[in-house]
Known about the structure:
By secondary structure, the protein is of the alpha/beta class. The protein is 48% helix and 13% strand.
Amino acid sequence: xxxxxxxxxxxxxxxxxxxxxxxxxxxxxxxxxxxxxxxxxxxxxxxxxxxxxxxxxxxxxxxxxxxxxxxxxxxxxxxxxxxxxxxxxxxxxxxxxxxxxxxxxxxxxxxxxxxxxxxxxxxxxxxxxxxxxxxxxxxxxxxxxxxxxxxxxxxxxxxxxxxxxxxxxxxxxxxxxxxxxxxxxxxxxxxxxxxxxxxxxxxxxxxxxxxxxxxxxxxxxxxxxxxxxxxxxxxxxxxxxxxxxxxxxxxxxxxxxxxxxxxxxxxxxxxxxxxxxxxxxxxxxxxxxxxxxxxx
Length: 296
């Protein structure tokens, strides 16, 4: 899906969290024409995010998917923001993309609401935490401006954007976010505010079962993945996908769904816990269910 034309729903966008998801979100927003500020807890983290955007855009130019002029224009619209309060003060939209930790996200959203304007739309890139848990400590007016914008990795290549509507989300906010998703070149789906939403819940169910099968010695990781890529035409097997997403991220999602939905269906397998405890988090650490020489 290509970005849609017309005036942008959100011209001034702030992305908080410059990691894998955050810098990708900043990139697609800047390419679409928004003025984007990227914030993280350290200047070094922000710079790593900006460097990743530069690399991604250059790859796009090299592959003929982006012109050099479009690359330069996107980079000109993207800036680092060392201070959260100044970054969000005049923002139209703030997207948080920090780690999947409830207390961290709550604290961050409280800080954003205190510093942002009364009309700023608030979005969380959470992949599993119910928005009601993020919103319950916020004023009612802020709750009405909060929704979920769950992007997929890698953000600049994946077409899906899961838009989550909480019970408190205002209709006009939802409409604007869906319209902006299309302006980003994404295909939005709208889901109700339940733990794991649609995509994470389905993806996790398959991923956890694949981990259990590996744990039980049913087949090798490669053969389990081939069962899905060759037998069901999935573009990537569930174990390779878990390596891409991050085993720590998958564990956090599983713990949320086990707590919120069903402690048996979504119980994290011991193998997943063991690998996370050993620091084998997938592609980003160089080893998960597979080895990635030279990574990260």
